[in-house]
Amino acid sequence: MSRKKLFKPALLSVAVSTAMWSGHGIAQQTDAATPNDDVEVISVQGIRGSLIRAQAVKMDSSSIVEAISAEDIGKLPDSSIAESLARLPGLAGERVGGRTSGISVRGFKEDFVGTSLNGRELIGIGDNRGVEYDLYPSEIMTGATIYKSTDATLLVQGIGGTVDLQTVRPLNAEETLTVTGVYENSGSDSSNPEFDNKGHRLALSFVEKFADDTIGLAVAIATTESPNNQQKYGVWGYADNGDGIFLPTGLDTQAISTELERDTISAILQFRPTDNLDIVVDYLDIDYSDSGVLRGFIEPFNVDPASVSGSGANSTGTQVGANPVLRTDPLQKDGELQVFGLNIEYQLNDDWTVEFDAARSESSKRDLRGESYAGLARSGTLTNDQFGTRDFVMSQDGIFFTSSTGLDAFADPSTLQLTGPQFWGGGLASLESQFATNTPRLDGATDADGNPLNYSFLNAQDGFLNFADFEEELTTVRIEAQGFLEGDVFTSITFGLNYSDRYKDKDNKGFFATDRGAFPGSQAIPSSYVFGLADLTWAGLGQVVAYDGFAPYNDGTYEQNDAGLLEPDRLGDTYIVEEEVVTAYVKADFATEISDMPLTGNIGVQYVQTDQSSQGFLGIVGANLRVCDDNSDNVIDDSCRRDIGADYSNVLPSLNMTLEVGDNRFVRFAANKAISRARIDQMQASGFVKFNQNIELIAIPNTLEDVQNFGTPWSKAEGNPRLRPLEANNFDLAYEHYFEDEGYFSATVFYKDLTNWTNDASANGELINFRNDPTNNGADYFIPGFHDRVAEETRLYGPANVPYSVGDTISPPDFGTFAFFEDGLTGSVEGLEITANVPFGMFADALDGFGIAASATYIDAELDNGAKIPGQSDEVFSLTAYYAMGGFEIRLAGTDRSEFLTYERGGSNKISEATRDGVTLLDAQISYDFADSGIEYLEGLRISLQGTNLTDVDEETIDGNGIVTTRRQFGPSYLLNFNYSFY
User: What is the CATH number of the domain that holds 847?
Assistant: First the structure.
C-alpha cells in the first residue's frame, strides 16, 4: 500500500477532534466525515504524529491558523509552550533571562496578541497585557492554535493574532498515566558561589474515566527548578571623544545567576450524563519564584585621553580614577496565577446547542530588586581615588580589562567596605538636614568660600531597594447559542453575549539605604554575609567578594528611607486600571460552490461596549520637599489623587472564505477589523513632575529657544486613561496545498491598515510652562531654595555659557518637557509568509522518516511618525529537520529573526524601550520511544536528550547607531528527559 492512499483529510479531522479541544474551536466544528471501515488507520506518534495532527487543524479551520499538537497530555517536546510556539510560521520568540518567554505574531509583541486558555482570556503577571508564555509548562498542554485571521466568535483578539493554548478534555481523550523526569544543565558554570547550573523537572499527569465513561478527570502536576547563568557586558551609553572613537560613559559588567522554581497544578473534571449535556469544571494554579543575584562593577567610566586609540566602537585605553563600585543586586520575584472555569454545553435538539461559560482569573506578583554597594571607602574619602588604573580593550563584544592595579582588594572581605563609593545620594536631597555632619570630607573639597565640605546626603546612599507589587483579576461570563440552518447558502448561525470585568493595580515602591551605624564612615563586610568569591575573570576583573545583598536590609544594618516620599515618579507609577467590556456577536457559516469549486466560510460582526477607568496620583514635590505629603503625616494629599475614565464602543466585522480549487488545494481570503487594547501602563491615571538637580541644566536661560537647544531640568510624564484600543483593518490571502499526511505548502500575503495606534507624544518634545502648567490648572511647581542654586564660584555655567559670580542665585528656566500618550497615530504592516512541510519519504522509500518543516516571514511595517512597532522583525526564519522511524527520533531546529524593538524593566521599576539585535538559535533533540522495542516493561518509556542554544549565541542590545550597549552570554542548555506512560 502506498503512502499516498493513506492521505485522508477527513480521517485526520476526526482524529484531531477527539485529541484536542479549544473553547473557540467547539463553535467552529462541522459534521465530520464518518471513517470508512475499509481504510487502514495507522497511528503515528512523535514529531511526525504531531505534524499530522497540526496539519489537520490548519486544513480543517475556517480561519488562517497555525497549530501545535501533542499525542497525549504532557508530551510536547519542549520545557515550556513558548519554545514550541517560537518555531511556528510567522511567530518569533524573545529570550528573557536566557529562556524563550515572549512571542511575537506577525511582527507584534505579545502585548498586541490575544492569548487564551481553552478559549478564555489569560492574564499576565507583569505591567501589561502580554502573557509570559514560559510560565506555562509543556506538561499541562496538549497543543495550541494560533489564529492569524479572526471570526466573530473569537472573543480574545489582538492586532497580531490570537494564541489559544489548549489542555485536555478527559472524556475526549485516551486514559493515560504518565510520569516525567528531566535533568537540566545550563551549560555555563555559575560565576556566583551560591548558585549552580543544575536543575530538574518532575511531572505526573493522568486521564481517567468513570461511571461508564460519563465522568472524566484529568490532572497534571509539575514542578521545576531551572538555573540560568549569564555574563553581562554593559555600558551606560557612548560619547564621541572628538576623534571618531565612541567611549563608554559608564561600566556595567555583571555575573548574573538565577533559579526559577515553578509548581503547577491543572485539574479538569468533565461530566457527560447524556449525549445532550456536557459539564466541565477546570482549575489551574501556577506558583513560581525566580531568585538570583547580579554581581559586578557599575560605575562611571573615566578614561585617560592620551591612552586612547582605535576607531568607532573598537578602542584600547586606560581607565583612571575609577572609584569602583562593586554592586550586589539580589533579585526575588514571586508570583501566582489561578484560573477557575465552568463550561456547560446543552444540545436542545438536533439543530440547536446552547453554551454557558464562566471563568475567574487572579494573579499576583512581587518583583523585588535590591542594591548593595561596596568599595574601598566612602565617596569623599582620599583612599577612594587610590584604586589605580585599568587597561581595557573595547569592541562590539564588550569591554575586557587586560591589566589593573589594586583589584585584589575586592577579593578580600576584610578590606572591602560596605559603603557607597560614588556620590549617588542626590535623591536624598530632601533629607539634607538628617544627613548633615560636622565631619570634613577627606578629599579636601571646599565650598565657594574655601571652607571644607562636610559629608552630607550626597555621600549617604549605600544601596537601594526596588519593589513593585502587581495584582490582577479577570471575570468573564459568556452565553452562546449555535443552530444549523436548512438553506442553500448559510449552514449555521452562532450568536452570543460575553461580559468581562478586569482589575489591575501596580504599587511601585523604593527605599534609599544607608549604613547609619557607620555613616559617614564605613565598615568591612560582616563575615556572616559572605558566600565566598565570585568569578569575573571572564571580563578581566578577577575575583570579588560574594556576599548576601539582602542581609544588610534584613538585619537592620541599612536605614531605609521611603523613596516614594522623595521621588515623585514612584507615586507617579502607582495606579489602578479597571475595564468592563460587553461584547455581542453573531456569525453565520456558509457553504456554496463557484464553478463547481466548494466555497465555505463565515461572516459576522462583534459589537463591543467598553467602560474603562484608572485611579492614580500626580507625584509632585511640595514645599516641605516631600511628595504629595504637605502635612508631613505620611498621608497622600487629596490634591494629588486622580480618577479618570472613558466609555466607547467598537464595531468589528469579519469575513473568512475558503475556496477549494483542486484536490486538497485551497485559496483562503480573510478580512476583519481587530483591536488590541492599549498597554496598561500607558492607560494609568498617574504621572509625575521631576527636576534634575544638575546645576548646569538649572543654569540654562529662560527662553524657549535655549530650552529647545540645550535641554531643561524640568520634566513631566503621565498616562492617559482615555486611550482607545489600537485598531487595524486586516486582509489575508493564502494558498495552501496539502500533498501528504505530514506535507503541505502554503503562501500567505497579509496587510494590516493601522487606523489607530498609541502615539508616545514625548517623541515630539512638547514643552510646557512649569510655573503655570496648562495641563494642571496652572500649577506652579517651583520651590525657592530647592529648585534654584547659589553659585559657589565665578565662572560660565551650563551649555549656554551663562556667567555667574559667587553668591548669585541661579534660577531654572520655566519650560520643560511633557511626555504623554494620545490616540491617532496610523501606519501599515504588510508581509509574506511561506511555509513548507516536506516528508522525504514521498520521493523514495529509502528516505521514509526524514523530513523538514521550514518557514520564512518577511514584514515591512511603518508608523507615520517613523517609530517602530514593538516585536517587529523584518525577517523571521524557521527550519526543522527531522528523522523519525521505529521509535528513534532526531530533530534539529533553527530559528532566525532580525533586529526588533522590545521592552525591558529599567530604573525605578518602570518599563523602557530597548532594541535587540538579530539572533539565530539552534536546538537539537534525540529520543527513543520503547513502544515498539519488544521489551514489555519498557514499552511505555521514552528517553530524550535536548540541547538549546547549541551555538552559544549572545543576546545583544544596541543603540541608535547599531553599537552594542549590553551583551548577555547564556551558553547552551541541556535536558535529559525520561517519560514513562503506564497505559
Answer: 2.40.170.20
Q: Dihedral through CA 959, CA 961, CA 965, CA 966, nearest 10?
A: 70
Pairing of strands 198-210, 964-969: unpaired
d(CA 539, CA 190): 14
The CA-atom distances, in angstroms, between 933 and each of 81, 525, 833, 891, 930 are: 29, 60, 40, 20, 5
Q: Is residue 539 in some structural domain?
A: no
Q: Report how far residue 617's alpha carbon sits from residue 682's, in angstroms, rounded to the nearest whole number.
A: 14
Task: Compute the distance between CA of residue 958 and CA of residue 234 in angstroms, rounded to an integer.
Answer: 10
The one-letter amino acid code at 452 reads P
- Residue 629 to residue 565: CA distance in whole angstroms: 8
Q: Are residues 739 and 679 in the same domain?
A: yes
Distance of CA 264 to the CA centre of its chain: 20
For residue 75, pLDDT over 90 is answered with no
CATH number at residue 118: 2.170.130.10
pLDDT average, residue stretch 254-283: 97
CA atoms of 969 and 949, how far apart (whole Å): 11
Among 116, 143, 166, which residue terminates a domain? 166
- Please state, in angstroms and rounded to a whole number, the distance separating the CA atoms of residues 560 and 191: 30
- What type of residue sits at position 895? T
Structural domain count of the chain: 2
Pair 218, 134 in one domain: no
Residue 693 located in a structural domain: no
The pLDDT of residue 43: 53
Nearest partner of 69 among 91, 92, 89, 46, judged by Cα: 46
Please report where in the chains the cell 507589587 appears, as a residue: 469
**What cell numbers appear for 467 in the block?**
519593589
What does the pLDDT average to over 789-801? 91
Query: In terms of domains, do 142 and 259 share one?
Result: no
Contact 296, 327 (CB under 8 A): yes
148 and 185 assigned to the same domain: no
Same domain, 94 and 220: no
Q: Are residues 120 and 187 located together in one domain of the fold?
A: no
**Strands (DSSP E) along 773-840, which ranges?**
789-790, 795-797, 802-804, 809-810, 815-819, 821-839
Q: Which residues pair with 863 in a beta bridge?
A: 827
The whole-angstrom distance between residue 634's C-alpha and the CA centroid of its chain comes to 34
pLDDT attached to residue 76: 60
Question: How far is C-alpha 806 from the chain's CA centre?
Answer: 51
Contact indicator for 533, 525 with CB cutoff of 8 Å: no
Question: Within this chain, do residues 160 and 197 fall inside the same structural domain, yes or no?
Answer: no
The dihedral region occupied by 414, where left means phi > 0, alpha psi between -120 and 50, and beta the remainder, is: alpha
Cα–Cα–Cα angle for 107, 89, 753, nearest 5°?
35
Write the DSSP assignment of 342-369 as a string of letters. Answer: EEEEEE-SSSEEEEEEEEEEEEEEEEEE
pLDDT of residue 17 exceeding 60, the answer is no
Distance CA 959, CA 396 (A): 12
What's the longest Cα–Cα distance across the chain? 104
pLDDT digits (tens, 9 = 90+) for 314-327: 999 999 877 889 99
Question: Which pLDDT value is given to residue 912?
Answer: 84
pLDDT digits (tens, 9 = 90+) for 148-185: 999 999 999 999 999 999 999 999 999 999 999 999 99
User: Does residue 788 surpass a pLDDT of 80?
Assistant: yes
Domain annotation covers residue 579: yes
In whole angstroms, what is the distance from residue 218 CA to residue 167 CA? 9
In a domain, 430, yes or no: no
Q: Checking DSSP bridges between strand 176-185 and strand 198-210, what pairing results, if any?
A: antiparallel
The contacts of residue 31 (CB under 8 Å, 6+ apart) are none
C-beta atoms surrounding 524 within 10 Å: 16
Domain hosting residue 50, numbered range = 3-166
99 by Cβ neighbours in 10 Å (0-12 / 13-18 / 19+) ranks as buried
Nearest to 376 by CA among 436, 432, 442, 311: 442
The answer to whether the beta carbons of residues 734 and 834 sit under 8 Å apart is no
Last residue of a domain, one of 138, 166, 194: 166
